[in-house]
Amino acid sequence: MRAWLISAALGLLLWGQTALAGTLLVVGDSISAAFGLDSSQGWVHLLEQRLAEQGYPHRVVNASLSGDTSAGGVARLPALLAEHRPSLVIVELGGNDGLRGQPPAQLQQNLAAMVEQSQKAGAKVLILGMQLPPNYGVRYTTAFARVFPKVAKDTGASLVPFLLEGVGGVPGMMQYDGIHPAAQAQPILLENLWSSLKPLL
Fold first, then answer.
1. Which is the most buried residue in 16, 57, 173, 194, by most CB within 10 A?
2. How far apart are the C-alpha atoms of 48 and 83, rounded to whole Å?
């Protein structure tokens, strides 16, 4: 009986430490799923390493899916919030919406819904902004780029204006398809978001 009580107490202690540490949930597309790379090379894994090296106790859950859109994120998010109970949610979605020419207004609605769902679940939110290549036309690319700061302003979420800053369109930083960042670009992606993420930890 005594051994059982000790075991139960230790279990509760470990559970409490995990709950206190908090979970960082990444909901993204191929950019965060490390498409074309080994998962250990991706920026999410590099973030996990940095958190551990700097003494942050957070658990990182990468729920990113290649090809996912903001609509897919809205559909998947409730179950992810219920399962992982994150203290912080990073939303990296929208790129596929833009590449498919979907209405920026729909993207804005979906991102806002994801932020609001996360906040209602008690999580802070960091939005990772995206931009489109100029061949999509000035009118569309401008409307698309404005979605991310608009959602952040309306919801109070934190924002990284452009995750691919210093990477997108830069020779040697993209894979052969010109869409997905190469392995050497992944540390830059981490640096691009770190200053916005750190105050939320």
1. 173
2. 20
